[in-house]
Amino acid sequence: MDKEKKEIKEPDFEKLASEKRPSAASRFTTAVLLLICLVLAGAILFKMFSAPEAVENETRESAALAAINVAASYAETGTFSKISRMNGEISRDGNDIVIYPDITSTGTVTEVLVKEGDAVRNGDIIAYIDSSRPGSSFKVSPVVARTEGVVTELGVSKGETINSGTAIATLTNLDDLIIEASIPEKFLGTLREGMTAEFESVAYPGRIYTAVLTYIAPTVDKATRSSDIKLTITGDMDGLREGMYIKLNLETEHQENVMMVPSTAISEYLGDDVVFIVDNDVARRQIVTTGSSNGTETVILSGLSEDDLVITAGNVTDGTAISVV
To answer: Are residues 182 and 314 in the same domain?
Structure first.
């Protein structure tokens, strides 16, 4: 019994302590794992605190990509003009002047000084007539133009025997040339004498002449629903002839100091005329009251101010994100 007790050895606590102590490799691995955990935790915290700003930036970028490109211009005040295009014809507002010889009986044409197409002035001699009697002294009588104009017809030739009733020449005053045309009834309310026009002759394409409205007929043709008008040609009239066919551009409406926008900016919404204006990179619908339009510009009677930037091109609705280009 005592022998058995003697064989029981006491535990070697120092050896056991050395066996439970971690090795150097184990400690290194633990440190690495701990460092990785710290890095991951820091990344998670960074993302948590920076997420709102990142989301906001991402939202802005998405909105920018979704914005519609539009063209825009400011509503402006100026002069509105409406042009009506029609056909017309050149005529004269006067009579031809026929020149007769200043003789009492008969005579012989001794000389003709002009030809058809020549321009003459008041007092120019256009021919000479020998009105002497057989056996008497030679007596020459000049034929004098009493007005200015262009010789449109020559009635005699040298050596011809004439009398006091023989037409020597016919003069046409080109200053009497006018334009005659007809204008639809719907434009009568806007027409005023003194309105300007431009026209082009078929004979001289590309050459622009000018005229001014001087007459508006007081009646309307029941068949054509139009009224006759006359215009006086102003400026250059070179090449123009009575009877020529012309293409006329007449200003049928003229307004000063009115607000206008491009006609492309006008659309309709629930029966109202509307435009879209730029409001902090967003399109906003605005109801307007429109006036006359010439196809390019439209008069705005109410609903806009000169500070409004109006969208003129771009497919937008109310609230659309936009980018003005």
So the answer is: no
- Structural domain range at position 229: 83-92+175-255
Q: Which residues pair with 269 in a beta bridge?
A: 272
Q: Number of structural domains, the chain?
A: 3
Residues 6+ apart with CB under 8 A from 122: 145, 146, 147, 148
> Would you say how long the chain is, in residues?
325
Residues pairing with 183 in the sheet: 227
Backbone angles phi, psi at 175, to 5 degrees: -70, -15
For position 163, which CATH number holds? Answer: 2.40.50.100
* CA-based nearest residue to 311, from 271, 284, 280, 273: 284
Residues 193 and 88 occupy one common structural domain: yes
CB-CB contact of 309 with 72 (8 Å): yes
pLDDT tens, 43-72? 666 666 654 554 445 444 444 557 889 888
Nearest to 231 by CA among 203, 210, 245: 210
CA–CA–CA angle 192, 193, 195 (5° rounding): 75
Distance CA 319, CA 309 (A): 15
Do 243 and 294 fall into the same domain?
no
pLDDT tens-digit map of 158-217: 999 999 889 999 988 777 789 999 998 888 888 888 888 999 998 888 899 999 999 999
Predicted TM-score (pTM) of this structure? 0.53
